[in-house]
């Protein structure tokens, strides 16, 4: 594994620390942690490669080809050479996993043609894909030979492409197309949904719907309706996805914290409630997830 520190010229002028976990022919995987040099927008950067960025923790704002979105631990982004990127970090640092893929590798994958020929994709992953992402990174941290690296990366890339192609367009990707909705209204709704996501990111999980609505200056009914329209997800489902990701981070720390304490820390009623939610979202109980995600 290779660790680098500094600005990453192909992507952004924000200082980043990244570690290359593996790079078999035509594809690579890196862990990236971006710091905060300034809280405004970085200068525009033209991207040089096909890249997949999968959120891990933290949050930031990104502007792709002039369109601004909010990125957090649920985010999944596919970009193409020539895309123009700017980022800002109003909430502090973020971490994500980056795949870089050569065009000839994409051409060999079922589902790669759309990405090669048309446009990227900016949306969110589900919890099953997120767990596969985290398990992949854990396996690379433990150490794999080049043959297995290549097979694992190709398998995961295929899963990402299948996921994205199963969603022809992420919810809210072009709200200007919503029937009878003016562009200005669509933009306002997107900002409201992003603001709600920020509130849920920086506050604890004990917030009620009424409290979130007050924070963003909307009624609970209006916020729920707009959030569903923009993201394709209810606020409750989104909050649970954030909680599951936060629990997975905790379980990967290998500190043997009692599961009842993990449940309380993340706003679950008790350990049984935590177990039910994890089984529902990722198919495993917390004890097994701790074994799967612990590095050693």
From TrEMBL:
<dbReference type="InterPro" id="IPR018060">
    <property type="entry name" value="HTH_AraC"/>
</dbReference>
<keyword id="KW-0238">DNA-binding</keyword>
<dbReference type="GO" id="GO:0043565">
    <property type="term" value="F:sequence-specific DNA binding"/>
</dbReference>
<dbReference type="Pfam" id="PF12833">
    <property type="entry name" value="HTH_18"/>
</dbReference>
<dbReference type="GO" id="GO:0003700">
    <property type="term" value="F:DNA-binding transcription factor activity"/>
</dbReference>
<keyword id="KW-0804">Transcription</keyword>
<feature type="domain" description="HTH araC/xylS-type">
    <location>
        <begin position="190"/>
        <end position="292"/>
    </location>
</feature>
<keyword id="KW-0805">Transcription regulation</keyword>
<dbReference type="InterPro" id="IPR050204">
    <property type="entry name" value="AraC_XylS_family_regulators"/>
</dbReference>
<dbReference type="InterPro" id="IPR009057">
    <property type="entry name" value="Homeodomain-like_sf"/>
</dbReference>
<protein>
    <submittedName>
        <fullName>Transcriptional regulator, AraC family</fullName>
    </submittedName>
</protein>
């Amino acid at each position: 594994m290779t660790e680098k520190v500094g600005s990453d010229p192909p992507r952004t002028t924000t200082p980043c620390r990244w570690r290359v976990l593996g790079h078999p022919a035509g594809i690579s995987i890196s862990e990236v942690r971006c710091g905060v040099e300034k809280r405004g927008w970085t200068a525009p950067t033209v991207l040089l490669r096909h890249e997949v960025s999968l959120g891990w923790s933290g949050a930031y704002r990104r502007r792709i080809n002039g369109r601004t979105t909010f990125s957090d631990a649920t985010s999944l982004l596919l970009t193409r050479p020539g895309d123009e990127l700017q980022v800002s970090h109003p909430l502090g640092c973020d971490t994500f996993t980056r795949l870089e893929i050569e065009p000839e590798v994409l051409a060999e994958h079922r589902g790669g043609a759309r990405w090669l020929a048309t446009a990227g994709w900016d949306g969110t992953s589900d919890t099953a894909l997120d767990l596969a992402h985290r398990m992949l990174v854990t396996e690379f941290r433990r150490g794999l030979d080049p043959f297995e690296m290549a097979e694992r990366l190709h398998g995961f890339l295929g899963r990402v492409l299948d996921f994205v192609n199963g969603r022809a367009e992420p919810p809210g990707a072009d709200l200007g197309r919503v029937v009878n909705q003016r562009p200005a209204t669509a933009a306002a709704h997107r900002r409201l949904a992003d603001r709600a996501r920020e509130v849920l990111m920086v506050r604890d999980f004990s917030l009620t719907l009424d409290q979130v609505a007050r924070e963003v200056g909307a009624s609970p009914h209006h916020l729920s309706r707009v959030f569903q329209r923009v993201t394709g997800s209810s606020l409750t489902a989104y909050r649970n996805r954030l909680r599951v990701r936060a629990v997975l981070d905790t379980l990967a720390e290998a500190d043997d914290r009692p599961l009842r304490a993990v449940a309380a820390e993340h706003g679950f009623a008790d350990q049984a409630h935590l177990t039910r939610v994890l089984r529902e979202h990722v198919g495993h109980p917390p004890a097994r997830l701790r074994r799967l995600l612990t590095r050693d």
